[in-house]
Design brief:
The complex is a heterodimer. Chain A has one domain. Helices cover 84% and strands 0% of the residues of chain A. Chain A contains 7 helices and no strands. In chain A, α1 packs across α7 and α2 runs antiparallel to α4. The radius of gyration of chain A is 23 Å and the shape is elongated. Chain B has helices at residues 20-25, 59-66, 88-94, 111-121, 126-139, 155-167, 185-202, 213-219, 237-243, 260-268, 299-303, 323-331, and strands at 2-14, 30-43, 48-52, 74-79, 82-83, 95-98, 173-177, 205-210, 222-227, 230-235, 249-255, 273-281, 285-292, 313-319, 333-335, 341-343. Classes of the chains: A mainly alpha, B alpha/beta. Chain A binds chain B through residues 23-24, 27-28, 31, 34-35, 38-39, 115-117, 119-126, and chain B through 67-69, 89, 92-93, 95, 97-100, 103-109, 113, 117-118, 120-123, 125, 149, 165-166.
Amino acid sequence: MSSSFVTKTVETRFSRNFISYWLDSWTIARYSILTFSRYLSWFLNLALGPFLMMAPFVFLGDTLVGRGESLSDGYFAESQYVDYIGFLAVPLIAVNLSNTVFSWIGGLIRQEQWNGTLERSLLTIQFTSTMYVGRAVAHAIYIVFLRC
Amino acid sequence: MIELNSVSKSFDRVVDNSSLWRKAISRPVTEKVTAVEELDLSIKQGEFFSLLGPNGAGKTTTVRMICTLLLPDTGFCSVAGFDTDKDARAVRRNIGVSIRGERSVYWKLTGRQNLEYFAILYGIRGSSGRDRAIEVSRLVGLEEQFDDYVEHYSMGMKQRLAIGASLIHRPSVLVLDEPTIGLDPNGARSLRKLLRESCKEHGVTVLYTTHYMLEAEELSDRLAIIDKGKKVIEGEPAQIRSESRSSNVIEIQIAGSVDGEKLSHRLRDSRIVKTVLAVNEERAGTRIRLESESDVSSVTDISSLPQFQGLELQSIELVRPSLEDVFVQLTGSRLTEGGIVQRV
């Protein structure tokens, strides 16, 4: 058996495995999104969460800095930002988004265990990591879609 | 098809009664609890084998070792010729498992989506996966509700779907852990019918765990009774019944309401009553099954016992020992509804 044949076989096997790995992860992601889409309260929570989280800061900003008041000049001098609300919104949404994604990904196995589907998923012929990757992709897509 | 040789498994149980503060700063005190001890099983191809025992007997631990979720501490376990430790993936390819029954499917998906999803997870993609899902839905009798969400299914339908999901990759071995728990009698009957027809017809080897004696007797080619992690007896149901020493089982029907517990205590003091096997308080009266000493010449000896004085005995007869009687004989305990053990 020539070395090129061996290399080629290994490469083919690797690429096939790599592709099937991603296909499997994508399948898990697809069905996870289907499941999420049936939890309307999650949708509402995720959609409204960042805005509710921002509300106290906006209130404080309006109260302390004021709109067009003298203090806003001081704020500009300190931070070089004109729009205080815009300054708040972007990082808060980013923090909220990443918190949600990371906490969901961290709780994947526990969530499956609660549902009772963990054993069945572990007993398929998939790598356990495809479950992690698939669900993580699903969570990321779900949240990005919501934010858009 | 399934081989277990001297398989043992134990777990650590926390027995620490110290204060919360001490617990927080020190390692928890544990003790070893043996769930399965030196268990030998040999299940042949196409056989319907039941593992019987009360809650905590070690049935689920055994099942988890067979399906590669747990590794045995000692001993050897193989399925379809593959070692569950070294060839776990090959074992999973050949085995279909339903452990948590109706909880093991996604309730927020439809029956079709569930089966197609699990088909893909077993590498059956595209049209073959879709066709197989339809085929399985017919097999488990869910074709009409196939596109309904699982959360709208009845408990029995969810169980059937879980069994369908276990059969999606055409396994040669099917492992079912207490699939009729929580089902009403009709649901349990229809599930048993499904298992009898589909598994026996397709030659699937089935390992079935239950604490319902009648169910095991009705379905199994062979069965084993385990208690406290040890195998107590193994064989064909009829053979187990005939080999038991409960040849003198007497069933007594008493009219009206009787304090069954008190009566069974009093009967135990009698010289000719060996064991009180069961006391069932029913609407029509109380039914008592007891094992008498072998030297009792007739049932009249029993009926003349002073413990029965003042009670209206409707019938008294010598009956064939049931599996439940054998279980009580061998383990010294009785199974109540829900698989809880009651020592006799």
